[in-house]
Specification:
The chain has 404 residues and is α/β, with parallel strands linked by helices. The chain folds into two domains: 2-29 and 275-403, Lyase, Ornithine Decarboxylase, Chain A, domain 1 (Beta Barrel); 31-274, TIM Barrel (Alpha-Beta Barrel). The protein has twelve helices and 20 strands. Helix 5 links the parallel strand 7 and strand 8 (118-121). The protein is elongated. The mean pLDDT is 93.
Length: 404
């Protein structure tokens, strides 16, 4: 996105024109930014050619996943629905990893039938279920075991997954026991050590600590893992004040790890691939004077973008048409939903706005539409993929008649 003649554009399309033509709220994705992110990720880790499995939970739009598949990526899924979506998008089963702490019998059975690369198990009970179903189907199933390395990712507590207090994975003692259990099973082939310590990580040091924990457990178990799944969690810059993750230092740490352990690396990036490709286009319905601040009431709400209400995430907001007139008021951007948490951000020294103006909420490609809902019986927004001057509707706006 950038301003051209004071008008905000995505690729070669004016946001104002998109708003008038397709209405608001509207999710708009940049194809060139998606391509740039994927190529950048590949380039940073090309020395060991990892299997890159896109985290489908970050964005579940079928057309987006189809575009990602064209770049040779696989998929990381956490439900039967996501697995079905990945397969429908054309992703090869041997590039799909199934993660998650609560896979049902039906989900495990479906994953086995589809012959996916790995089911990453997170408890002994789950492994026993996999073994039972595999035995009944006379199959040998490739699995991974997720280790909880008790590593603080230094991110929001709501999206931390690698500490001992989190529900994910097993501790080192249990991990060792499960490795031995798998050795004695005729229907399970243990192929992978899996780990994922959190999301929106901006410092390489937690990853270094994670790799050290993995190295120690491999040395203790003396087991030859075909894969080490390092998860994802790579953060993006939601504001100019946020530093970017140093990929070179993370890459260097992995290369040092691989000198000791000969294994293939799997990544599960989501946000770093899709996060900054998306923009939520919205219209100002009303401007309400609240005394100490003015409420900028948008037609986009927490049902469209849940992250700010869910864990206080902050997204940049930009005016579609730029001017040099700065308001002296404090602006609080809110939605129309009947919840006090239905707000996006509070800003000072913002451009002066008026009712019916359009604004862009930035970096919403990850956990935007995938966390959206129909709360207050609000239809979900239209989704558009922009490629140069081409506009493709990749999901139609819901209608009330579809909901009621």
């Amino acid at each position: 996105m950038k301003y051209k003649n004071k008008k905000l554009t995505i690729e070669k399309i004016n946001f104002q024109n998109l708003a008038i033509r397709f209405g608001t709220p509207a999710y708009c994705y940049s194809h060139s930014k998606l391509e740039e992110n994927i190529n950048n990720f590949k380039e940073n880790f090309k020395s060991f050619s990892p299997l890159i499995c896109f985290s489908v939970k970050s964005n579940t739009n079928l057309n987006i996943i189809r575009e990602i598949k064209k770049f040779g990526l696989g998929a990381d899924v956490v439900s039967k629905g996501e697995l079905m979506m990945a397969l429908k998008a054309g992703i090869s089963p041997n590039k799909i990893v199934f993660s998650g702490v609560g896979k049902t019998n039906d989900e495990i059975k479906f994953a086995i039938e589809k012959k996916i690369l790995l089911i990453n198990a997170e408890s002994k009970s789950e492994i026993q279920v996999i073994n039972k179903i595999a035995k009944r189907k006379k199959k040998i199933v490739q699995i991974g075991i997720r280790l909880n390395p008790n590593t603080d990712a230094k991110t929001l507590k709501q999206i931390s997954t690698g500490k001992s207090e989190n529900k994910f994975g097993v501790n080192s003692k249990t991990f060792h026991e499960l490795v031995n259990y798998c050795k004695n099973s005729k229907n399970i082939k243990l192929q992978c050590l899996s780990v994922h310590i959190g999301s929106q990580i901006l410092d390489h040091k937690p990853y270094e600590r994670m790799l050290k924990a993995i190295s120690n457990i491999i040395s203790k178990t003396k087991y030859k893992f075909e894969f080490v799944d390092l998860g994802g969690g790579m953060g993006i810059s939601y504001s100019n004040k946020i530093k970017k993750l140093n990929y070179k230092k993370y890459n260097s740490a992995i290369k040092n790890f691989l000198k000791k352990h000969n294994t293939k690396i799997i990544f599960e990036p989501g946000r770093s691939i899709i996060g900054n490709t998306g923009t939520l286009l919205s219209k100002i319905i009303y401007i309400k004077d609240g005394g100490i601040k003015k409420f900028i009431i948008l037609d986009a709400a927490m049902n469209d973008l849940m992250r700010p209400a869910l864990y206080g995430a902050v997204h940049k907001i930009l005016p579609i048409n730029k001017s040099n007139i700065i308001s002296r008021d404090i602006y609080e951007f809110v939605g129309p939903i009947c919840e006090s948490t239905d707000k996006f951000v509070t800003l000072k020294k913002f451009q002066k706005l008026k009712e019916k103006d359009f604004v862009a909420i930035c970096d919403v490609g990850a956990y935007g539409t995938s966390l959206s809902s129909n709360y207050n019986l609000r239809p979900k927004p239209i989704e558009l993929l922009i490629k140069g001057r081409k506009i493709k509707i990749i999901k139609n706006r819901q209608k009330h008649k579809d909901l009621i």
